[in-house]
UniProtKB/TrEMBL annotation:
Keyword annotations: Hydrolase
Name of protein: Alpha/beta hydrolase
Lineage of the species this protein comes from: Bacteria, Bacillati, Bacillota, Bacilli, Bacillales
Keyword Hydrolase tagged: yes
GO terms for MF: hydrolase activity
Amino acid sequence: MAIAHVDFFAETLGLQSAIDVILPERTRRRVGLASSAGGPPYPVLYLLHGASDNHTCWQRFTSIERYAADKGIAIVMPAVQYSFYSDMKQGFPYWTYLAEELPAIVRDFFPVSDLREDTFAAGLSMGGYGAFKLGIRQPERFGAVASLSGSLSQRSRIVADPNAGFSNPILFEMARLTFGSAEAYDGSEHDLAYVLEGRIGEGARLPKFYQACGTADFNLELNRDFHRQFAGRADLTYVETPDAGHEWRYWDNAIQQVLDWLPIRRGKGERSEERDG
């Protein structure tokens, strides 16, 4: 695998941004071995960070590079700050950046596929919300999306008192800056359950969904509510892990299960090797 650290100017945001990208290596040279640098574009997984994290955390706290080594897939990890992967009411248009500008930038820089069946998203906590948001709002672009310990509704953060002993009160203030009031959030493009109900009603072709959470996680009831609402109505795989909390030890294991679950088409991005004659 190869890792690229890319700094660039994001026109949508009007500022410098960054992504880390893990890529399969098309060429590997050993004694007596050689391979072609050509081949089809790679399937791509947009792997999203949680609140208070950034684009480096998946690499720092899991073995994601090692887990992806035999999958033949590119993994793109963007930075979005405390944006909830949304166009903020008071802040930056991170949804537009993530959903429109970033994929074009990635395709300009790297040989990744733009086909729906090769395009996936996954994330943890706030990133789980972002991954499902991509799949629900852009079902024509994503073949599968996965949420780990996802904060699949942000409503409780908007109405909560940030001074009521929470470990991270900044998160609650950022939710209000992003979404405004609870009334503005309910039934909006940010309300995932509402948007997904609409997609189902329209008969949209939806991606596959993977939803996982630990039973000791504070987002458990949000995940159970979402599962109860859509089980049997969408292609939704649901996994609860006993005693697992909101922690990297759990996510390090869960992302391996996600990579195994993804419908990666064999032959896409795989390396072929031939012995020199």
